[in-house]
Write a structure and sequence with these properties.
This protein is of the alpha+beta class and about 80 residues long. The chain contains four helices and two strands. It has helices at about 5, 10-20, 50-55, 75-80, and strands at about 40, 55-60. It starts with a helix and ends in a 6-residue tail after the last helix.
Length: about 80
C-alpha cells in the first residue's frame, strides 16, 4: 500500500491519534515501510539511570529481524544507516 492510501486507513488514523496524545508535534504522516524496520535509538541522558547505562534501544517493527552478525559481519554492518 502506498503512503497516501495507508495514511487514510482507520488503523493508521488511530495510530496517529495515539502518537499525538504523547507527542502533539508529530506530523500526521506515517511511512508504511518504517513500521517494518529495525531502528536503533539512543535516548536522552536526562536522568542518572539513563546516563549510567549509556546504551541504546532497539525498536523492532512488524516482522523485523536482527541480522546475524556472527555468520557474516561485513554484510550485516552495511545494512545499518545512521540518521540524526
Amino acid at each position: 500500500m502506498d503512503k497516501e492510501a495507508f495514511n487514510k486507513t482507520e488503523a493508521c488514523q488511530k495510530l496517529i491519534h495515539y502518537i499525538k496524545d504523547e507527542k502533539p508535534y508529530f506530523k500526521d504522516v506515517i511511512i508504511p515501510s518504517d513500521l517494518e524496520r529495525l531502528i536503533f535509538v539512543k535516548g536522552r541522558n536526562n536522568n542518572e539511570r539513563m546516563s549510567s547505562q549509556s546504551g541504546a534501544f532497539l525498536l523492532f517493527g512488524n516482522n523485523a529481524v536482527y541480522p546475524d552478525l556472527v555468520s557474516n559481519p561485513d554484510d550485516a554492518m552495511q545494512e545499518f544507516k545512521v540518521e540524526k
